[in-house]
């Protein structure tokens, strides 16, 4: 278990007053043109609920702390002038004396290095480094160069030789861990360290070099982020013996760097702490004094000999014999260090709490073990929350084996300050130092309070002894300026001493903040001129100047203004009795941490044993673990998220304005603020002067007859198949004759009366068009329906049946194939096939003509019904009159400049909306030729549409988002292949996506970008916008400015405000104009509640007025109220006469700098989303697509996602396209991203297989269907997480 500090995003705390004052100041600064809009953002600012400070919060009450001084550092006459001099002395005078014993994997001694051997080998290495690495004349290494030391933890001897060899050569050793693979925890950060230290050479042993990962050619891998390295082997046989007269240069220790110790900080960056020669020597002297080392003592070292205490205590200063017990031996034989103490009668042992714990667990009452020889058992991590219990339990077990209580010496160190404090071994029989029992609550506020009440929420800490000899210590506040703490306050320990680190090598900025700190008093005045070093340890000074450490700065978690120590939380989680079954145990650590530390647990992830990234000596690599968590690479086997209890700084829920403010006052407010009322209009449709034209164009039936007479052989339609081959054409006269045949069949076979509804059931093609005009010729009302999918009748046939029933169709026109399907056994399984109306197949009709072609008495008569299923699952049919048909066709003709010599290509479904209009109506009206490409053909031949555009040199094409997505995903990587086939899209002037939604900017962008290679102009792609009440409101067309893109602030949008921001601004949403408003169309933005017009900085419902709006819903029971509300609505004030239709979409109008055709400033309409789909959460309005976009970006394995609400909970359903082991990784990522970007807490995360989220034929998500399946438990999810 470990705790990862994960910052829940903090929303800036602000209050209305401060922002108002700020705005006033800003206005005063620029008095020329007050930006009035600034005064109207008050309730758009999200206000955080600031938790009121608790009056019972403990506050420090002591006096200001006085710096604590260590005993003076004694001067001993024979102390060497430098550490290397000590080695030279012992090598010469005590050559046979043992320096180091290394153990093999079973814990038996492998070899002993004497001081004589250590000296002679180090000298050989120094000579080789300085003289034998390059060719004769060039010297590769100069004194002061940095060199990496890469030795395994099982080989202390080779390391010692390399370390002292570097010191003798006066090059600076940088010990690092052996890289085992490209994927090592923190490997690239080690590269950062080597780069910042300018290391180009690495020393290693022959065995180690053999084990390094290699490329296939046998070279050592170039590790991620590492500089280029030259590798040098330092085994004796490769070293050169120096000539008799060569002696290493050993100057008196000065302030130049002696070695560099690596240190990983909280974020995982690895920096190098440089220790000067004098600091290294002084530190050895002060350790000798504090630990009372005598010459020739034996020391058992279980710590890492390359750094920190394992390196300092094992130094050659006092001719100590070090027995090094590597981590690998400890894993195999945890008792080995105790046995070594016993066998060698060691005086000092250097361990961590873990080693005490392991030895206890492995101990089986062996009588032959004695620890009586120990005078000091130095506990390196004596400052951990579990160190007290480890020390006590170890003493309890081994006191009977001669272990004396007074020899246990906890200490505290850090790479920057080196040894901060160590407990001196006590006098036998003297009382042991007192423990501090502190209140966790007090600690979280940084205050020391003795805990008297609750045992559970107490932290017992032991002292780490006194300050080191020759050092001065202060406690300062951990954040902000280094202000001295009060005596009962926890702060960071800072040290002034000659024995400490000097700098972060190569990082002067970081160095200043850590190594050159001057403490200040309560008034901010420096208390002196001596610089202190920040130790990174948090603690306080107890009675008798004893130092207590309660945590590390990097383990500090700040949660809602309180501090928690990661180690304490981990200790609590470990202390919870591990419950056998995962489900029962899931909430336990969460409850324990909550009750003991009063801090909520955001996420609890259970991962399989040994899967967390580890540091080389077996600890958990925290920053890499955090990285894994944030990248979704942890692969937990169980996860529990509790965001509801943890996140306390969400913006306040929005209070809606009371309705008392009338719409009229809102309008006046807008005018005062200098805002325009948000409205826009297309150009005039103009009048048709020529009577002949009026006659020919009033009804489409007349237009078709007129074309059949005046230009019979002009080809109106060309239908292509998957191979791009023409499989059908229709000239004006052919279409007219086929329509006559069908009209005759309707009156004879179907005995249909005028005005009855007839369902058309055809695949996309020319038969559908002929059937449509056949119905009009016979005076029936066509109802176009998407045919059922033969492979999926159960899902698609009920919708067909429903439309047939709702429209009360008297007859069905279809093809022979579909007629068979309707009457098949498979169909009978999902609907009643005995009750179909009359079915006429129109494949082989006799050549008959109807007695007469029907002409409607008025243009207000219904021409056809347009049925469609909305994204919320509503089936709606609207009535389109003959007048609306001709107005719409005329509007499109003007916008797109269509006439009979033009050719367009259409690749979309022709069943409803603008798709149907373009497929069936526009060519007959304008006379242009339409090349029809059924979208389903693209499934077998992806490039069909694009090659058609290229082959026919098409200037204008219309498609759907599904088609564009198919091409982007399927052909995006094959543009070279398309080029080779001669596909060239430079002819395309406009490619319009027909849709009833917000423009999908990311998709249109990537489409334009990908096919730029085959000549597609970046200006070609645009979108159209239509709705149920008006099939075509915007369409880009050929003239007028390009569609513009704006960036709006998402926070304001949730408050129904529109605030434009710069591209790339945080929380910005790009929106593209939905095409130009069609001729004859007016739109206005209206408040859906008050029905009053809005200013152009507001989001509101788009209302439309135009001659081609639908006449109303086709309702069987005549629900007139609903119909009138949507189709013939007046504003509540302002302009009381115009009748508007409500589109049900939210949007806004912005006046742009561009000019339209008439030279006026162009007003752009931006569609934001459907009103029915919006989610109202915490009083704010959210658009599902925005949350879904964030979710899809959260992880590469999320294919598609959809959101909806369920009892005030936000539910996110995500399709997983990766392996199922990624499923649980997605839960925290989805929760995080929605919290950070939308300030919403996700209630339920559902991970499902690809293809589960239902998508309709227009490529829109059916979120309500999904919600119904979720509630009916029909999703068959991979995983469901209920965030508690």
From TrEMBL:
Annotated CDD domains: Dip2 (cd05905)
Q: Matching InterPro entries, A to Z?
A: AMP-bd_C (IPR025110), AMP-bd_C_sf (IPR045851), AMP-dep_synth/lig_dom (IPR000873), ANL_N_sf (IPR042099), Dip2-like_dom (IPR037337)
Q: Which residues form the AMP-binding enzyme C-terminal domain?
A: 1173-1275
User: A Pfam family this protein belongs to?
Assistant: AMP-dom_DIP2-like
Tell me the ranges covered by the AMP-dependent synthetase/ligase domain, including all copies.
90-505, 705-1114
Superkingdom assignment: Eukaryota
Q: Which PANTHER family does the record match to this protein?
A: DISCO-INTERACTING PROTEIN 2 DIP2 -RELATED, DISCO-INTERACTING PROTEIN 2 HOMOLOG B
The family annotation for this protein states: Belongs to the DIP2 family.
Task: Tell me the protein's name.
Answer: Disco-interacting protein 2 homolog B-A-like
- Origin species, per record, is Haplochromis burtoni (Burton's mouthbrooder)
Lineage, opening ranks: Eukaryota, Metazoa, Chordata, Craniata, Vertebrata
């Amino acid at each position: 278990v470990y705790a990862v500090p994960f910052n829940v995003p903090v929303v800036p705390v602000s209050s209305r007053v401060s922002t108002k004052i700020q705005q006033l100041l800003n206005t005063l600064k620029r008095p020329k043109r007050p930006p009035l809009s600034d005064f109207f953002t008050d309730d758009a600012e999200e206000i955080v609920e600031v938790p009121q400070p608790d009056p019972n919060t403990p506050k420090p009450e002591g006096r200001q702390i006085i710096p604590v001084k260590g005993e003076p550092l004694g001067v001993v006459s024979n102390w060497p002038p430098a550490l290397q001099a000590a080695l030279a002395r012992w090598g010469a005078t005590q050559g046979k004396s043992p320096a180091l014993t290394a153990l093999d994997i079973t814990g038996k001694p492998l070899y002993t290095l004497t001081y004589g051997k250590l000296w002679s080998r180090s000298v050989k290495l120094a000579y080789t480094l300085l003289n034998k690495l390059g060719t004769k004349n060039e010297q590769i290494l100069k004194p002061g160069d940095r060199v990496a030391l890469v030795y395994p933890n099982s080989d202390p001897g080779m390391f010692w030789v390399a370390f002292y060899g570097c010191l003798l050569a006066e090059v600076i050793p940088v010990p690092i861990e052996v890289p085992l693979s490209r994927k090592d925890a923190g490997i690239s950060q080690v590269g950062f360290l080597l780069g910042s230290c300018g290391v180009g050479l690495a020393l290693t042993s022959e065995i180690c070099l053999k084990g390094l990962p290699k490329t296939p050619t046998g070279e050592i891998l170039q590790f991620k982020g590492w500089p280029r390295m030259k590798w040098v082997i330092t085994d004796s046989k490769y070293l050169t013996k120096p000539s008799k007269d060569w002696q290493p240069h050993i100057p008196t220790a000065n302030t130049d760097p002696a070695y560099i110790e690596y240190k990983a900080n909280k974020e995982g960056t690895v920096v190098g702490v440089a220790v000067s020669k004098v600091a290294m020597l002084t530190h050895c002297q002060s350790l000798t004094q504090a630990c009372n080392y005598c010459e020739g003592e034996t020391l058992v070292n279980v710590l890492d000999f390359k750094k920190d205490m394992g390196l300092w205590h094992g130094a050659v200063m006092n001719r100590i014999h070090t027995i090094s017990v590597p981590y690998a031996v400890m894993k195999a034989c945890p008792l080995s260090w105790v046995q070594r103490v016993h066998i060698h009668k060691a005086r000092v042992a250097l361990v961590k709490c873990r080693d005490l714990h392991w030895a206890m667990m492995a101990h089986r009452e062996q009588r032959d073990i004695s620890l009586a020889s120990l005078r000091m058992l130095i506990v390196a991590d004596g400052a951990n929350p579990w160190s007290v219990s480890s020390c006590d339990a170890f003493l309890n077990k081994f006191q009977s084996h001669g272990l004396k209580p007074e020899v246990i010496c906890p200490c505290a160190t850090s790479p920057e300050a080196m040894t901060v404090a160590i407990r001196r071994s006590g006098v036998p029989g003297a009382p042991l130092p007192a423990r501090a029992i502190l209140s966790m609550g007090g600690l979280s506020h940084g205050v020391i309070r003795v805990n008297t009440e609750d045992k559970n929420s107490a932290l017992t800490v032991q002292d780490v002894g006194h300050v080191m000899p020759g050092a001065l210590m202060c406690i300062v506040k951990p954040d902000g300026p280094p202000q001295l703490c009060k005596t009962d306050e926890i702060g960071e320990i800072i040290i002034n001493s000659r024995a400490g680190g000097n700098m972060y090598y190569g990082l002067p900025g970081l160095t200043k903040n850590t190594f050159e700190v001057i403490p200040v008093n309560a008034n901010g005045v420096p208390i002196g001129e001596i610089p202190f070093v920040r130790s990174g340890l948090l603690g306080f000074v107890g009675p008798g100047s004893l130092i207590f450490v309660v945590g590390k700065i990097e383990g500090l978690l700040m949660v809602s203004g309180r501090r928690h120590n990661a180690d304490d939380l981990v200790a609590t989680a470990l202390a919870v009795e591990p419950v056998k079954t995962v489900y029962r145990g899931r909430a336990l650590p969460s409850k324990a941490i909550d009750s003991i530390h009063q801090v909520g647990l955001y996420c609890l992830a259970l991962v399989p044993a040994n899967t967390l990234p580890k540091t080389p000596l077996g600890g958990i690599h925290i920053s890499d673990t955090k990285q894994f968590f944030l990248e979704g690479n942890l692969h937990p086997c169980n996860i529990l998220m509790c965001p509801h209890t943890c996140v306390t700084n969400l913006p306040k829920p929005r209070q809606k304005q009371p309705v008392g403010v009338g719409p009229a006052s809102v309008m006046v407010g807008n005018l005062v603020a200098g805002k325009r009322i948000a409205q826009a209009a297309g150009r005039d449709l103009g009048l048709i002067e020529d009577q002949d034209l009026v006659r020919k164009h009033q009804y489409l039936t007349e237009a078709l007859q007129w074309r059949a007479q005046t230009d019979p052989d002009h080809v109106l339609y060309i239908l292509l198949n998957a191979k791009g081959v023409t499989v059908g054409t229709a000239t004006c006269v052919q279409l007219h004759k086929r329509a006559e045949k069908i009209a005759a069949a309707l009156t004879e076979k179907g005995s249909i009366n005028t005005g009855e509804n007839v369902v058309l059931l055809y695949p996309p093609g020319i038969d559908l068009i002929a059937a449509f005009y056949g119905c009009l010729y016979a005076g029936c009302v066509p109802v176009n329906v998407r045919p059922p999918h033969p492979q999926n009748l159960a899902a698609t046939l009920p919708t067909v049946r429903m439309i047939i029933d709702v429209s009360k169709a008297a007859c069905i026109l279809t093809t022979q194939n579909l007629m068979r399907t309707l009457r098949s056994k498979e169909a009978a399984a999902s609907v009643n096939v005995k009750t179909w109306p009359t079915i006429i197949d129109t494949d082989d009709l006799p050549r008959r003509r109807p007695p007469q072609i029907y002409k409607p008495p008025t243009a207000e008569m219904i021409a056809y019904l347009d049925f469609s299923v909305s994204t919320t699952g509503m089936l709606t049919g609207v009535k389109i009159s003959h007048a609306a048909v001709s107005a719409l066709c005329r509007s499109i003709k003007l916008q797109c400049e269509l006439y009979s010599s033009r050719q367009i290509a259409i690749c979309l479904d022709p069943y409803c909306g603008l798709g149907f209009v373009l497929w069936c109506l526009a060519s007959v009206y304008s006379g242009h030729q339409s090349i029809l490409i059924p979208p389903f053909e693209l499934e077998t031949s992806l490039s069909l549409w694009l090659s058609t555009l290229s082959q026919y040199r098409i200037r204008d094409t219309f498609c759907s988002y599904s088609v564009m997505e198919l091409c982007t995903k399927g052909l995006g990587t094959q543009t070279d292949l398309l080029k080779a086939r001669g596909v060239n899209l430079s002819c395309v002037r406009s490619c319009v996506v027909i849709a009833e939604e917000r423009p999908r900017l990311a998709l249109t962008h990537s489409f334009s970008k990908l096919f730029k290679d085959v000549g597609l102009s970046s200006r070609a792609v645009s979108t159209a916008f239509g709705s149920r009440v008006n099939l075509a409101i915007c369409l880009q067309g050929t003239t007028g400015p390009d569609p513009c893109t704006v960036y709006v602030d998402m926070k304001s949008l949730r408050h129904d405000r529109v605030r434009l921001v710069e591209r790339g601004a945080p929380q910005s949403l790009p929106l593209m104009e939905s095409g130009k408003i069609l001729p004859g169309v007016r739109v206005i933005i209206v408040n859906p509640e008050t029905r009053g017009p809005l200013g152009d900085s507001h989001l509101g419902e788009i209302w439309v007025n135009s001659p081609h709006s639908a006449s109303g819903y086709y309702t069987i029971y005549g629900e007139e109220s609903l119909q009138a509300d949507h189709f013939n609505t007046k504003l509540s004030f302002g302009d009381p006469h115009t009748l508007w239709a409500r589109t049900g979409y939210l949007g806004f109008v912005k006046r742009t700098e561009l000019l339209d055709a008439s030279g006026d400033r162009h007003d752009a309409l931006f569609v934001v989303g459907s009103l029915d789909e919006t989610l109202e959460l915490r009083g704010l309005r959210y658009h599902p697509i925005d949350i879904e976009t964030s979710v899809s970006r959260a992880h590469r394995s999320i294919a598609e996602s959809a959101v909806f609400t369920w009892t005030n909970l936000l539910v996110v359903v995500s399709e997983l396209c990766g392996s199922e082991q990624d499923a649980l990784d997605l839960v925290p990522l989805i929760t995080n991203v929605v919290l950070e970007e939308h300030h919403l807490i996700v209630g339920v995360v559902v991970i499902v297989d690809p293809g589960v989220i239902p998508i309709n034929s227009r490529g829109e998500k059916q979120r309500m269907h999904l919600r119904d399946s979720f509630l009916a438990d029909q999703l068959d999810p991979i995983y469901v997480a209920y965030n508690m």
